[in-house]
């Protein structure tokens, strides 16, 4: 069984930055209302940048960081719920942009858990010997699926992409990954697919925007995530107190504080950058990893943990190299 390590990381966000005060100009809300409930202060919103644009830019940054070339990549997975096309996959479009040839390319849809799910697939493939260098991208342009008159959702979600390159190595640095899902909660966060009436089907889906039952999602996240983190540490020899930094899906500061409390860990160990980006779905963890890099040391033990629609969740234990 081969080992795996992270060899490169990168991120990309749209140029437009929208503050809470900017949103308060067109909807009944305020900076205080948003920040006190979520921890979000601003976010980046696409004015034309596509999911492929952001994914390709983040991927290019990760490639440059790794020192690898496009021809070294033999697996590309894009975790997204906002692809530019149903077909081709965003992964194939990114490969075309970057000049990646003959790689296996496909998308995954696990919402805000997408980066963890895609990482599990990539790491498993590399450990089995099928691939050497996997480019994993979390990318979403959720702004195109938002009702900008619904303050319960439009203040939360935003656009961005983050990329990680996993590389085969002799000394394994991806210690363990554990994912799960519960379809009983599939109606708690939804984003409908486009549908149009045609000759044989006169019905049209009238729901067009992101819907979220915030209260139930909060209850789910603050219960499932700390348990999942405990579970991923089983048989590793580590406890939550041994972890140097927790990088969770950046959905809500209160959720992260609650998880820290349940794990009996200082919440200063929980990295937060959602104040600058909002909830970028599958992109939040790799974007946060890029922003956290300056404080990481070789050998640091990291937990990545994602949770979201599906319901889906998952965590992974990484040794920073």
List the helices and strands and how they pair.
Elements: E1 3-12, E2 17-19, H1 20-23, H2 31-38, E3 42-44, H3 51-66, E4 75-79, H4 90-98, E5 104-108, H5 114-127, E6 133-141, H6 151-154, E7 159-169, E8 174-181, E9 189-190, E10 211-212, H7 214-233, E11 245-248, H8 253-263, H9 274-277, H10 284-292, E12 301-308, E13 312-319
Helix pairs in contact: 3-4, 7-8
What does this structure look like?
There is one protein chain. With 321 residues, the protein is an alpha/beta fold. The protein folds into two domains: 170 residues, Peroxisomal Thiolase, Chain A, domain 1 (3-Layer(aba) Sandwich), CATH 3.40.47.10; 145 residues, Thiolase/Chalcone synthase (Peroxisomal Thiolase, Chain A, domain 1), CATH 3.40.47. Helix content is 31%, strand content 24%. The protein is built from ten helices and 13 strands. The strands form four sheets. The chain has a five-stranded mixed beta sheet with strand order 1-7-6-4-5, sandwiched between helices. Helix 4 links the parallel strand 4 and strand 5. Helix 3 crosses helix 4 and helix 7 packs parallel to helix 8.
